[in-house]
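Field reference: sequence -> structure
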Amino acid sequence: MTNNLIPLGYLVATAFFIFGIKRLSKVRTARQGNQLAAVGMLLAIILTVLDINLKANGAVDYRYMIAGVIIGSLIGAIAAIRVEMTQMPEMVAIFNGFGGMASALVGLSVVWRAVHHQMAQSHYTGALEVHTILGGTDVAVSTVLSLLVGALTLTGSLVAYAKLAGKMTGNPILLPGRHVVNVLLLGFALAVAGMLAFGSYPGITVLILCLGVLAAALILGVMAVIPIGGADMPVVISLLNSYSGIAAAMTGFVLRNNLLIVSGSLVGASGLILTQIMCKAMNRSLANVLFGGFGGDSGDSAAQSAGYTNITEAGPEEMAMMLEDAESVVFVPGYGLAVAQAQHVTKELGDLLEKRGTKVSYAIHPVAGRMPGHMNVLLAEADVPYEQLIEMDDINPEFKTTDVAIVLGANDVVNPAAINDPSSPIAGMPILNVHEARTVFIIKRSLSPGFAGIPNELFDYDNAIMVFGDAKKVLTEVVNEVKEAS
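Structure field:
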């Protein structure tokens, strides 16, 4: 009876995952989607433990499982409480890496157990048919792929974390001959997959080959991500998330666990779809992101600002006076908003303007911030109404009738060079057309460029006004001015 209920339970858990991911696609339902997926994961863990217990005829030591659940829960709870919103991309990168590491360790443990068990049973030191002791050719290939993709995801995610956290340069690191090295590493791993799937080798050789794949994949993960600049980090994070799902699916084949295959495939597919959406939003191909070496640290801000000739500057008081007569205001959040932790004061200013009869909206660019959906999550934390968060394609037609657009730390995603300059590195990239608003206030610490490393044409526009300073401090002063004028 229990044997029949477990597959049914897996089906229910899969439904939770599917509906959870579906509801994650919209800001309004994202929290509920996360909860549904969490329930599905809890159910999956319980069912998997029961399944293992049945297959082992009750001879399961739950101490290690319980210890793992407790330790993992503590790490997750502490991270959720202590990590700031500005550090969310780094945390996502690390968690992607943990997923890859788990898959690689499972694959390695399966090989070790199979080889050790076979040799202990027969006291045989000759050649072993690897696909036989692992349970089939499909399992042998899946095991190597779980090692390859899992280890690659781990080191690639660690490099992404280091770039996002500023622990290493955000500039592309272009090593000579890197493409040849990557092809050789990948070719070695795939060759080993074929060897293990169809060949016979001594047990120690099998372990050495698997460790070789693991080492090659760890190096490949580093080599794949260091040439990618900071401008492309949103794409990298979504791609690594997809890799972690693919690694999990491969591990599902290794363990013959249908639920793990399905859930890993869901994560892998959704990550690839999101990656494509990110590439489209940047007018870039995935190949260009992975091999183009585009974007990085902005360098010396004084040197970068030397080309501007028509900068208009104002302070919070002038900005507040302009907002008094505005009938429509659009906030454009960027990574600078996250750095300044200004989401709450932005919401406060929006509420004040609404009370005065002003129409308030928030324009969301798909790659604003450092991970997909970064700005949506940030503003949702400040309880900004979901209906006021408007995606790029929907908000762009409204800028021509917008009185004031307020750019909060965004840069490349509002740069008109993408439209006006065919030779620009961001030419063709869809942007938020804030330059079409009657007045554009740009709150930034300096004139330094964004991750693309190029000047922003918007700063020189006649309708653009720079307000230099920390976004939270500037907006707090604006809020005080608006309150005094009320």
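Note: Residues 298-304 have pLDDT under 50 and may be disordered.
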